[in-house]
Design brief:
The chain has 530 residues and is of the alpha/beta class. The chain has 19 helices and 22 strands. The chain has a domain of 165 residues: 3-Layer(aba) Sandwich (Rossmann fold). Helices cover 33% and strands 19% of the residues. Pfam families: Eco57I, M_Eco57I_C.
């Protein structure tokens, strides 16, 4: 289990120091003749300060770790006009929030809320409230650093930041996007095909801006690596992304690709129109509640289990059925969920009673999710959905029809279709190129290549606008799709689903462009060349 005591100093500091080419690039952007003051609220070892050679620029550098602050003080390559404050910027801001600077440079710390001290959490909340944002327990430390830093920049001043791509894709950053859209008169976002900090599970981007009022001028570039950093003057102005949009993940695409997606939006509907989705079952102890066939026999538990879809590798099909269970049983997988709701301990077979007693002797019941239950071995909220949606996706997303009264752990979400919906039509539509591209944009990607989809993301997940109440028979098409899903080739899967939409539902769209965008988005997420 992750806790503050087991985290590395680097993770708790949130520090991944900025490569020299980026430091040079950001300094070249923020400095203008006549500028004389600069703030670096998360200075680290001074990586962003080394390019500064102008003696007229006075620098305030804040660094919480003494060893790093001393590196700045003792450096021969950092301006002598640097005031180094060995303290926490969040606390420093309380006393110096009225300071105004011409320039802001920073690679703020990426620290989760639970790793902040109570005092830091309180100050973080105050900073956000003071600047018109609503604090919550999801907000990472880099957000208040950015908000506080920008608030201390003069109108006409410039900012240069290295921040997580979470800025584009997580819900808690929506307020920050709105804040930045109001505070800046120009904004440049640069995203990368390669990870700036190898070894991390987090992607980063560059955010360059100029503070001021008026309509926002926006530029964007996506580049392969640090050798291709563009001259800002060569970038074309684009229509700014909407500050009210749930996400800005489409900035990973080219302008033409984004324009195409906007043009087809009227022909799409939200997935939530045809289905409602909830998280899967949180057992609190999968090792106890998930059983193999042999376990069920030994425990005499046949009457107390439900078919279980517990792992992504347990399904490579459109259907969760008896054949799936049989195959997984032969692989000795845990294919049953222990459901003891409605039974007293005395009503259970002796073998099951002993199983529960052994678990208690091993303190399994002391896990948080279990100890807060009235009866620790009775899982609440067990029900059989119409389908399952994989939460964390590798190469191919999975929407699986439930044909065996099965249940799932929270590896999968539970999907119930609206009344009179043709489930086969939804499945075909789900695997179309335009839907899969939309899913890539709706979810949250990680540096390791995974895409996470949460129920709340499905508001922004769009599928083709076809007649889902039509009772057209798609058994043949679904069988073909199922065979393709087993190949794990997402382009073949999407191409076939596209053809069914065109031929069976007369859905008109530029499938070649949609397939190209899907390929592009997948290559971005998995750091492959498209």
């Amino acid at each position: 289990m992750l806790n503050k005591e087991t985290q590395t100093e680097q993770k708790l500091r949130g520090g991944y120091y900025t490569p020299s080419p980026i430091a040079q690039y950001l300094w070249k952007w923020v400095y203008k003749k006549g500028y004389s003051s600069l703030l670096e609220p998360a200075a680290g070892d001074g990586a962003l300060l080394r390019p500064i050679k102008e003696k007229s620029v006075k620098i305030d550098a804040i660094e919480i770790f003494k060893s790093e602050a001393n590196k700045i003080k003792n450096s021969h390559t950092i301006s002598q006009q640097t005031n180094v404050y060995n303290t926490d910027f969040l606390a420093w801001y309380e006393e110096h929030s009225s300071n105004q600077y011409d320039m802001l440079l920073s690679n703020p710390p990426y620290i989760r809320y639970q790793y902040l001290s109570p005092q830091q959490r309180d100050i973080q909340s105050q900073i956000l409230k003071k600047n018109g944002l609503r604090p919550n327990k999801l907000i990472n430390s880099w957000v208040p650093f950015v908000v506080a830093g920008i608030s201390m920049v003069k109108d006409g001043g410039r900012i240069g930041l290295v921040i997580p791509t979470d800025f584009l894709q997580v819900t808690y950053a929506k307020q920050l996007r709105e804040f930045i859209s109001k505070q800046l008169q120009s904004l440049v976002i640069i995203t990368f095909s390669e990870n700036l900090f190898p070894g991390t599970q987090q992607d980063f981007l560059l955010l360059l801006g100029e503070k001021g009022k008026g309509s926002l001028k926006f530029k964007h570039a996506r580049i392969d690596n640090l050798n291709n950093l563009p001259a800002i003057s060569t970038l074309s102005l684009e229509k700014p992304p909407s500050a009210s949009s749930a996400k800005w993940t489409d900035l990973n695409l080219t302008y033409n690709e984004r324009s195409y997606l906007q043009s087809i939006k009227a022909n799409l509907i939200s997935f939530n129109t045809v289905a409602k989705t909830q998280v899967g079952i949180t057992t609190g102890a999968n090792s106890f509640f998930s059983l193999t066939d042999n376990d069920v026999q030994k425990l005499h538990a046949k009457e107390f289990v439900k078919p279980l879809l517990g792992r992504s590798v347990s399904i490579n099909s459109c259907f969760f059925n008896k054949q799936t269970l049989s195959l997984n049983s032969k692989l000795d997988q845990k294919i049953w969920l222990l459901d003891l709701n409605g039974y007293t301990l005395k009503q259970l077979p002796k073998e099951l009673q002993n199983y529960i007693e052994d678990a208690e002797n091993n303190e399994v019941n002391n896990a948080y999710k279990l100890r807060i239950r009235k009866v620790w071995y009775q899982i609440p909220n067990i029900w059989e959905p119409d389908a399952f949606l994989l939460r964390r996706i590798g190469n191919v997303p999975k929407l699986v029809l439930n044909e065996t009264d099965g249940v799932s752990t929270d590896t999968f979400h539970r999907v119930n279709f609206a009344d009179n919906i043709n489930r086969s039509a939804v499945l075909i539509s789900f695997y179309s190129s335009i839907s899969l591209a939309s899913l890539e944009l709706a979810g949250r990607s990680y540096g390791g290549g995974a895409l996470e989809i949460l129920p709340g993301d499905l508001d922004s997940f769009y599928i083709p606008r076809i007649d889902y109440s039509s009772q057209i028979n798609l058994d043949h098409e679904l069988k073909n799709l199922d065979n393709l899903i087993r190949t794990n080739d997402i382009q073949k899967i999407a191409s076939y689903a596209d053809s069914v939409l065109i031929n069976n539902f007369d859905f008109s769209f530029d499938y070649k462009q949609s397939q190209k965008i899907l390929s592009h988005l997948q290559s971005i997420r998995t750091n492959k060349k498209s």
